[in-house]
Each structure stands twice: as structure tokens, then as C-alpha cells.
Amino acid sequence: MSDVAVILINYNSSHHTISCVESIFSKTNTKLHFEIIITDNCSETEDFNTLKKFVNKQSNPKLKLYRSPTNTGFGGGNMHGYQYTNAPYVAFVNNDTLFLNDCLSILKKYLETDDAIGVVGGQAFKENGDFMISLDHFASPMREILGRSFLEFINPKKYPKRKKAYLKPITVNFVPGSFMMLRRKDFESVGGFDRQIFLYYEETDLCLRLKKINKSAVLVPEAKFTHLHGASTGKSIPIKKELKISLLYIMKKHYGNWGYFSVFAFLLIKYGMSSIIKSKNRPLFSLILKGAPMSESLQYKQSLKEV
Length: 307
What we know:
Number of strands: 9
Helix content: 40-55%
Order of helices and strands: EHEHEHEEHEHHEEHHEHH
Strand content: 15-25%
Distance between the termini: 27 Å
Shape: globular
């Protein structure tokens, strides 16, 4: 049995997935028993076949590929892959990342030091080697309305600086979903990823639920990786809409009606005013005006394919 299961999602970006897998194999200590589970989230046939050809050519029992009949998003895609492993540790890794050192061994070793730690993440870098923010504060009414910098100013202990390179492990609100590792038992104790969320805010939701059972999140800067941020999703109006849908869902789930309506009112004013000048913001204003309902999510616009 593997000690660590790495779960990747591929969606029409097989070139990134292949590079990610190669980096994991090249940087991970051969003494660590690990496996890589790839969920193809219903990519186009050509992209899936490219990935399938690569996996078959490797002929490595540590590398497995499964295809979902529909695109289930980040949480659903990871849960699809999760069902094929029973490793005691699981790492969820974006396919647009490249390991720079033995991240799996480093993070697993740190998790083993304290059962109160629920999730750990490494330090990300941009493609050119520049520092990348690798921690964040929980999505909350205060964060959305007052801003991250204000929270860091008034309470630096609770809200450590995001734009700072740390040399030692530090407890944070949450680590980005681009690379996070957990114990299987902790992941399952909070129910895994919320499949209602199609894209974005999955990690803040997961870490909020872990916090409720007294499990902390820790950034471990010794583990280093490159993150080609946004390479697998890109930017578009539908993606921006999904951000708002997920945000308001999180507000209501974790902060109740007052949290939802305070952020809803803030966004309504913000995008109502900006849409007067910027026409590109009008679709977002229209969405928020309707309350950014889940029925508008991309998850309800996916089609089934044969696998």
C-alpha cells in the first residue's frame, strides 16, 4: 500500500499534467511509497488520448489514470480520484505545478510531528523563480469588505503577512489548493471537498471545517514548487462569475444570512458602480443582482461523454 496518494486533475491541459507527473517522479525520494492518481475531468478526446498514451508508455504501477464522464470541477474531480486510493496521506496537487524538491517527503514528515496539524502546504514560486503568495486568510465578510492588508495591519498574529517569504513553518488560516497534503482520517472526518462548489474557495471551505475540529493549517516553506498560476483555467466572464457564486455560497455556509447579505450588498454596490464605467463588469453585476445562485454555476452546464 502507498503511504502517500497524489491526486491530479486534468482538464484539456495534458501537457501540464505530463510535466507535473514527471517532476513528481524526478524529485520524490524513491524510498517513499507513493502513487499518482489522475482524474481526467471529461477533457476533449484528443487531450485525453494524449494523456492516456503517456500513462500507458510509462507502464508504472504508481501512475493511474481514470476518466470522469462529466466535468465535476475541482472538488468533484479530486473526490473522483480519491475513491481509488486508501493511502493514509493524500496530496491534492494542481496539474500546473512543478516540484522543485522532495515536497511529498517534506510535508509528510511535518504532518507526522503533530496530530493537531490538519493540512500542510509548500512554498510556491512563479515560473521565473519569483516568490509567490502561498498562504491566505479565510474568505469572510471582514476580508471581502475591509481587505486583506487591513486585517494584517490590525491583527498580524491572526492574519500573518501574505507577501512575505517565510523561512520556518508558520500556522496560517489556509494553504492554497494548488498543493495541499492531509491525513486521510482528517480529510474524511470533515467530509472531504464540498461537491456543491464547482471552482474556487474549496480550500478555504475545507480548512474552515478542519478548524472547527481543532485542526490547523501550516505553511512549510522547505517544500518548494513552481505554480503556473491559472494555466489550467484561464480567465473569462464565466470563470469570474463562478468566483462570485462560490464566494457567496461560502459566506452563507460559514457565516449565515448576515455574512451572505453583508457581502452581497458590498458586491452589489461595488459592481453596480463600476459597471457604469466598465461594460465588462455588467454581466457580474447582473449575476450578483440575482443573488449569484448556484443554478448559474458552470457545473450545471456540463455534458456527459462516454468513457
